[in-house]
Structure formats: structure tokens, C-alpha cells
Amino acid sequence: SRAQAWGRSARQRPGLLLAQSRAFSNNKILVELDEGSGVATVKFKSPPVNSLSLDFLTELCISLEKLENNRGCRGVIFTSAIPKVFSSGLDITDMCGKSTEHYVEFWRAVQQMWLRLYGSNMVTIAAINARGCLFALSCDYRIMADNPKFYIGLNESQLGIVAPFWFKDTFVNVVGHRVAERSLQLGSLHPAPEALQLGIVDELVPEEKLQEKAAAVLAQWLALPDHARQLTKSMMRKPVLDRLVTHQEDDVQHFVSFIAKESIQKSLRKYMEMLSKRK
Amino acid sequence: SRAQAWGRSARQRPGLLLAQSRAFSNNKILVELDEGSGVATVKFKSPPVNSLSLDFLTELCISLEKLENNRGCRGVIFTSAIPKVFSSGLDITDMCGKSTEHYVEFWRAVQQMWLRLYGSNMVTIAAINARGCLFALSCDYRIMADNPKFYIGLNESQLGIVAPFWFKDTFVNVVGHRVAERSLQLGSLHPAPEALQLGIVDELVPEEKLQEKAAAVLAQWLALPDHARQLTKSMMRKPVLDRLVTHQEDDVQHFVSFIAKESIQKSLRKYMEMLSKRK
Amino acid sequence: SRAQAWGRSARQRPGLLLAQSRAFSNNKILVELDEGSGVATVKFKSPPVNSLSLDFLTELCISLEKLENNRGCRGVIFTSAIPKVFSSGLDITDMCGKSTEHYVEFWRAVQQMWLRLYGSNMVTIAAINARGCLFALSCDYRIMADNPKFYIGLNESQLGIVAPFWFKDTFVNVVGHRVAERSLQLGSLHPAPEALQLGIVDELVPEEKLQEKAAAVLAQWLALPDHARQLTKSMMRKPVLDRLVTHQEDDVQHFVSFIAKESIQKSLRKYMEMLSKRK
């Protein structure tokens, strides 16, 4: 059935077990797995700002798949090895001045990342310093650094582009229709205290306590029997996952034709110029 | 039409009028009807913990049907005659070590109870000391004893089982997707103050004021014209009621095959042992 | 496509441009357009209470269409020239003792007003003293006078009538299912502070600051690129707009047959008598 299109189905796909692995690292992502506790830590270390580039997404999907298929792994903490940013979001250089083939490949990678993460059978905790909203919203629980200078939000409309329906669905599932409607239209980046108040994140802790707190929360979630928790999570998220699975190719075509428009390309180039001047 | 599958249709089913009745009692439920005010009080008195057993549910459905068909009854207050608990939820003994026929009969009774209650044309107020979450969520208004030692929640996943989609739909309609997702995955039992903050209950009052407050709230709701209020309630709840009506048999089959699994039976036996040790 | 059934489609319908216009006034509505900023102010001035009569709605729809088709207009502030009331809601005299033809025409005007407003490509800000709930809910942002004697709500059920499904959908999109269910059943009129707390309005300001605050908020929204903001708004609202477009004729027939019932007519006459005695 369609439900099998994502997530772990441990009995049917044992092929990728990493029984021996303790840690595996690539260029942009560091994965540490503690087989005693069943807890993995996935650290983003792709300078300068952990943007979701095609390369980053590809590595991330592979890491997620490995963990999902590893029966020894029951929960994951996502965090950043870069100060001040968890992830800056979609990489603009992958959406600007590239070929149609590149856009297709890039968008498929964004979709895959989200399908894996939002549909994961593992408990997923985001330990965020700042930014990385879509990624965080797709986890089970969000802890953010208690720093009013740190921001989080889906700011697509500030770039002149539009969040796809499944970003919107994910956002609405967390904060409700009203907050999502206003925040998405304005492309708001919310300071941490506001993000907490709006429900975008679940709690704030001092930055140096992020990892510790994430571990404590994860332990609480792992106290539940996996099977019932997984079926419950799937029941909650399946309608929104199914919606993308059903419209996946349309969504790729829609993205590609939208992003290739000269007006959009111009708008993205302007935004990149503004960013480069800011530095 | 399907809308007629539940609730009172006074003109078409006047057969069960209890014009003379003042009070009727069975073994497990006490019903008092004040025909002057049109207010019934339904008291759960099934020791030790008012669990939703097949017998309890059968009596409850009969009581609800009688009241629904009694034009003299416009509103109901549900409360408990047992200290410290409104209802402990689904009776585990009805889900453990029984025949398929028993599971079928039990689950049909759970469905019937919910269809009657969630689709009731009467105003329904839950005056809760503790527990009884699904029942309370299916009422129009929830008042809980202001006692931080009293808990409420849908804790199925703690038992290793999964709340059916219509428990979930009912929960989401009250607290929204985010709170439901987290609470259902963790099988959380929330202390009264937290239940208020999450919106699971509408207000807290000192335990000895439960009945008085429920009567005051009900009077407020009964000030509205019945017909407009009933049509409005039906408009709000019909999609979720229809969903179970459409999938009722599938839902029975799903429950029966799930609950009969040896792994689930084992998990329920463990939970019962834990409970019996606690006493 | 159906999405084109409402809202501005500037490239395809440039016919109604009002390039020269500074202000245009009718009997019941005053429109001022500042072409420098692209901001229009629409003032309701239909004594005694700006009720949504057939005449008022007809003028309002024409004004909205003109603004929507004017590329010089990017945002609108709606406010009242009448003290103490923004709009009293549906005009009861248009629903009482009239012909079927009149009811049809009236309801079509209510639908048209909502389709134009909820689906507008312009940024729409409601600067409310009191009342006018449906209109306000259909805007992008709601600012209300900070006066606990001012009320707002959908009080249909107090009149013995039922809000149509698209009023309900609009309400649920703003405040969620639970608040809408209770408020609609009770036909509640909420004092301003409660309206803020429930999320019916976005902020309260002293009455004399309404216009100033609305202008400041609108400027913030207009800082975003129109195209991305409009597509995002449409994505959020399209499902609810589509639902009425699909069922528009059914909804008219439903209204007409409901409102023409003698029991409903009697209930409305009673309500009007009560109002006239109150004066």
C-alpha cells in the first residue's frame, strides 16, 4: 500500500542494516549512533549556513535511510555543528541559473528529504539554534535556543517564491491555519520567544543545554512501545504524506516551471545580492 | 440520509417516550430527569473505576437512547458516583483473552456509545473528577475538578494499542492537530491544570462545585433555541461522524484483528498485572 | 480553472481600470484611494448600523470589484463611519416577509461579497469598532477597538437561524474547530478582550488609533512582493472558496427553503420586535 512508500518497514527491508556501525560521516553531515540507547545524533556541518543544497540533501537522505533501516536506532536528535544556524533552508544557488534537469533533481531531493523525515518511524527531535523551520516542523519535537536574536520561519514569500502545499500542510499541522496563513504570507522569521508562543517550537532552553534537553525529551518518547507510537504517528501524518505522494510529479513540474520564470530568477538574484552585501 | 443514522429524530421515533419517568436506574448507571428544566443527570456508578465494559456500554447506550427520544429532555450532565474517577476508559478485561465474537460485540458497543454521544441533539456536559477523556471530548462542554492529582488523557499507546481514527478525529477537533499528535503518541495523562491549558477541558472548578457549575453552564446552553443549536452542532460534527459511519465495519475488523494478535494480548496482560500490583 | 472564479486576474481583466479616480462614493459606502501608496480606505456609512442589506451588499461588491481591477490599488482598509458599529451583520429585513426571488437575490449578494473579499488578491485589513464578524474574519488582519463594551461574534443561532457552512469554514480557519463549535452553537457575541484571546481579532488598539494602526499594519504587508503573497494567500484559502463555488446553487436553495419556513419567519419577527423595543 501507499503507506509503505516511506518510513521503515523493518521486516521487509533489512538489507541496509549497519549492525557494526558506530559512526559514519560524509562531507556535510555527521552521524553518531549509540547502540546502547538506540539514539542517533545527526549533526549538520555544511558551512557557512547548512543550506539545503542538492549535495546536502542527498547525503541527508542517505543518512536517514541508513538509520531508518537500522533496527538498533529508535530515535534521532538533529542539531547543528555551525554556530548561530541550524539550517538556512533551501539553497538559493540550486534554484538560480541552473538547467531544468538540475531543478528537477533538486526538487526531488527536497521531496525525498521531507517524505523520509515527516514519515519516519523513529522519534525525531530537532535541537535548533536558529532557522531550519521546515526541517524542524517535520520532526516530532522542537527545542530551540532561548535567544531573542535567533529566528525561525518559512520566509519563501520574502524571496518572491511560494512555499509548496506540503510545506504549508506541515506548518498548518503544527500551528493551525490562522498562524500559518499570516506567517506564510509575510514570510515571517519569528524571534525564538515568539516562535514558542506561536507553537512553532515546543520549548526554549539556553543554547548550551540544547543537546542535554534533547536527550532527556527523547528518552521520554522512547519509554513508549515503538509499535503503538509508530502506528499513532502514521495515523496523524498519513493524510499529508499521501497528498504529496499522490501529487509528487505535478509538484516537481510546478516547481520547475515556476522557478524557471525570468521574473522569479530576477527576484532570486536580487535576494542573493542583498545577502552577499550583508556579509 | 446518513445524518439520520445517529441522534434524535424526534418526529420519526417517538416510540420510546418516557413521559412518566422521573428516574430510572440500572446496575451501572443512574439517570435522573428533571422534567421541569429538561435536564437529565447521568451518574456512572460501576465500581471500581467506571471502566467502559461491554455491560456498562450497553446500559449507557440504552440510557442515551431513551433520553434522546424523550422530548422532555434537552440537556444531560454526565458525572461519576465513584470518587476520584469519572471513567477509566476502555475495559481491558473485554479486550484480553476473549473470543472474536466478544471483541466484535465490544467494539460495536464502543462505536455505538460514541456515535450516540458525539451526535447527540441534546446539550451534553461532562462534569469530571478525573479520567474519561474520550467520553468527555465527545460532549459539548467539559468541566473538571481543580485537583493537580487528577489526570485526563488518551493513554492507549501506553498499553501498546492505538486509538482508532475516530478517537483521534474527536481529539483533533477539540485540541488541534499538534497537541493531539504529541499527546496520542506519548499516551499522556495530563494533570488537570495542564488539561485546561491544552484545551482538553474547558474549565476547572473545586470538586464540590462540579455539579453546580455544570447546571449553570447547561442553563446557558439551553437558553438558545434547540433547532438552530442542533443544526449548528450537526454541521460541526457531521464530517467526523460520517467518517466512522462509512468505515464502521472496517473499523470493527481492524480492531478485532489487531487486538487478537499475540503481541498485543501479551502487552495488555502485562499492563493488567502492573495495575493489579499497584493496588 | 476554478481559481479564476474570484479575485483579481490583472492581466486578463484590465477593463475596469479607474486610473483617474481619487475617490468614489455611493449612498452607503465611501471609497478613498491613495494612488501613491496603493492603499484604499472603504468606509461603511449606512445608518443606523451598517447592516448587510441587499443594497449595501450590491454597492460593496461593485466597490470591491473596482478596487480589485485597479492595478494602482494593492491594499484596503475597511472601517466604519458609524459610531459603535462596524456592521451589524445580515440585514434581518431582507430575510423577513419577502418573496422567494428576493431571498435568492439577497443570498447571492451575500455569497458574492464573501467570494470577493475572502478571495481578494489585495491585502485586506479590518479596522473594527464593534461587530461585523464575518466580514472581519474574511480579511487578512483584524484590528478592534480596545473597549470591553464592544462585541463581535457570529450570533445566527440566537436568531434561530444557522450560519452556512462557508461562514463556519471561515471561522474555523481563524479560530480552530473547538472555539468555532462552541461560539457558533451559543451564537456568542464576545467582548473585545475575549475576542482577542480567542483569536477572533489579531489586536486591540484604542478606538482613536484604529485607522493609524491599520495603515501601519498594511504598510508591513505591502512590503512583500505581491505575486508571492497572492499565491500564498490563494493556497491557504482556495479549498474553502472552492467549496462554496462548487455548492453555490445548493447553498442558495438551502437558504431560501430554510428562511421561508414559517417557524423561522416567526423567530425572526420576534427578534426584530425585541430589537425595536430595545431602542
Automatic annotation (TrEMBL), chains A, B, C:
Pathway: Lipid metabolism; fatty acid beta-oxidation
Catalyzed chemical reaction(s): (3Z)-dodecenoyl-CoA = (2E)-dodecenoyl-CoA; a (3E)-enoyl-CoA = a 4-saturated (2E)-enoyl-CoA; (3Z)-decenoyl-CoA = (2E)-decenoyl-CoA; (3Z)-octenoyl-CoA = (2E)-octenoyl-CoA
Superkingdom classification of source: Eukaryota
InterPro entries reported in the protein's UniProt record: ClpP/crotonase-like_dom_sf (IPR029045), Enoyl-CoA_hydra/iso (IPR001753)
CDD domains in alphabetical order: crotonase-like
Annotated GO biological process: fatty acid beta-oxidation
Molecular function as annotated in GO: delta(3)-delta(2)-enoyl-CoA isomerase activity
Gene Ontology CC annotations of this record: mitochondrial matrix
EC main group: isomerase
Keywords, sorted A to Z: Acetylation, Fatty acid metabolism, Isomerase, Lipid metabolism, Mitochondrion, Transit peptide
EC number(s) on file: 5.3.3.8
Subcellular location: Mitochondrion matrix
Function of the molecule: Key enzyme of fatty acid beta-oxidation. Able to isomerize both 3-cis (3Z) and 3-trans (3E) double bonds into the 2-trans (2E) form in a range of enoyl-CoA species, with a preference for (3Z)-enoyl-CoAs over (3E)-enoyl-CoAs. The catalytic efficiency of this enzyme is not affected by the fatty acyl chain length.
Similarity comment: family membership: Belongs to the enoyl-CoA hydratase/isomerase family.
Subunit structure: Homotrimer.
Name under which the protein is recorded: Enoyl-CoA delta isomerase 1, mitochondrial
